[in-house]
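As promised in the previous annual report, we have extended the structural survey to additional targets. Below is the entry for Membrane protein.
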Amino acid sequence: MKIERGDWQGRVPKVAGGEGRDVARWSTLRVLTGVEVPPNCANFPAMVLSTSSPSWLAAALALFSILSLLVPANALYFYVEGRQPKCFFEDLPKDTLVAGKFETEVINQGSNTYSVDPNLKMLITVDETFDNDHRVVSKRENNSGRFTFSAADAGQHRICFTAETDATSGGWLSNSQGAVKVSLDIAIGETSKIETEDKDKMKDIVQRVRDLNSRLHDIRREQVYQREREAEFRDQSETTNSRVVRWALIQVAVLSAACAWQLSHLRSFFIKQKLT
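The corresponding structure token record, generated without further manual editing, is:
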């Protein structure tokens, strides 16, 4: 590649046939030419790249390679040796959401390739090492699955994966080293893509819970209404009973007065009859 040195004018480097570029162009220049560029571009002479097509093609490929390295990747894979657990340690703040998904493959001893084993089981455990290995998650999945948990307290958490089979004794897993390949994609935080489906499920569950809460509130309001009606009916019944008792007492008093008057009248009548 042809490189021409310009004057010391404190300018950003220029590409032949174009205007000034940003400072990030120096990283591409360093990859293509091997020239060590000072951190301060203002103290470096301006350079002009030749406009030949191969140079621009190489620059484009190099730039694409650099940009491809900037893409974040959270996926990893590891090998499980027999029934020995493979563990990872992570310091998590309180109330941090951790979501992950995994897939497993079993080695084929004949062809030295990996394939999916439907009989394989994976045990996922999460322990709080700061709290006497208090276990917060213990989940048994098939050859692939998901797990999600939220850190109840801040501290170091141990996430372990253990391969299991339905066989009670012996088998390929008992004497094979690195027989299970586990592809793990794990994300920490609310903004990860892994828990999107889980969030959708959680949203569905949350919506159902909200519907149930609404129904419970309706039932509660109905119960309060029935209690109010019961209180009104009780008050009305007590009023009716008091009126019945009052009228009964009035009737007894009237009857008693009538009886007393009749007795008094008969007595006076008999007395008059004897006197006559």
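The helical segments are 25-33, 53-69, 172-175, 196-275. Confidence is low (pLDDT under 50) at residues 1-53, 69-73, 166-178. These points will be discussed at the next consortium meeting with the crystallography subgroup.
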